[in-house]
Amino acid sequence: MTDEAIAVDTGGMTKVFAKPESLSESPNSYCFGCTYGIIARIFAEAIDEMGIAKDAIVVAGNGCAGHLWLELDGIRAPHGRAPAVATALKRLYPEKIVFTVQGDGDLCSEGVSEAVNAAWRGERISLFWFNNSSIAMTGAQMAPTSVLGMKTVTTPEGRDAKEHGYPMKMTETLAVSPGVTYAARASVHNPASVAKAKKAIKKAFENQQRGLGMSVLEILSTCNSGWKMSPIQAIEWMEEEMLPVYPVEEIKSSPLA
Fold first, then answer.
1. pTM, entire model
2. What is the rounded CA–CA span in Å between residue 86 and residue 99?
3. I need a surface site. Which of 20, 95, 106, 198 has the fewest CB within 10 A?
4. Neighbours of 10 (CB within 10 A)
5. Backbone region of residue 158 per phi and psi (left: phi > 0; alpha: psi in -120 to 50; beta: other values)
6. What pLDDT score was predicted for residue 69?
């Protein structure tokens, strides 16, 4: 950006980037280099741009993903139970935009039953979950989504399919339900991906506004501290190891049957 692009009169500089109103000013708990901060920002930007802050309720899961620090009405659910809590809220307040924010451990381990049953009921909620291929908050143990060969606290020699099973593709699993009308996977590993991820967040909210069944959006993220890497190395590892297993794509987009 040139000086001319941001300069104004002698009074100073034009603000070209600012904190979204829906993003809390409270200090967050993310490690330096964690891409969850980017995810929090684009959620807040999407909510501000759509003007839905006063109508939104966030149901936070446990773990790092539940700490988005959004300036919204919200509630924290017990481990894995965010889809069930969101279901209750949406049925009590059908005019509200109700959405979950969960990590891969919270959704794919403790919360499988809640997510699957909410999907098959076609609950009119937006389910957002963040996949960093590990259970990060408690020390980076193997998660259901950990890719084959990945070294974690509980798989120091790497995840082995014969010993530990295969990585869970939860978004594809939920997309099978006719009650899920939008299922997609996004990422935040580069600027273009960040822009596409925000667009996908908006689509999930828009589908809920239109009453089009459940939307599921998985966002790939890094955990450089848990992976024992620099932020740059973590991005490179995501590109080389995670994206081949979890391709960024729109898995399903259809009207409610």
1. 0.91
2. 7
3. 95
4. 5
5. left
6. 80
Q: Among candidates 42, 224, 250, which has minimal Cα distance to 133?
A: 224
Structure tokens at 158: 């790497």
Q: Cα separation of 45 and 47, whole Å?
A: 5
State which amino acid sits at residue 47.
I
- Residue 22 per-residue DSSP state: T
Reported residue count of the chain is: 257
The amino acid that residue 161 corresponds to is A
Token pair, residue 213, equals 């069944």
Place of tokens 């509200």: 96
The pair of three-digit structure tokens given for residue 191, joined into one six-digit string: 């600027």
Residues of the chain with pLDDT under 70: 1-13, 15, 255-257
Quick one: pLDDT at residue 12? 65
The Cα 152–Cα 37 span in angstroms is 23
Sheet holding 73-76, edge to edge: 73-76, 56-60, 97-103, 126-131, 214-220, 180-187, 249-253
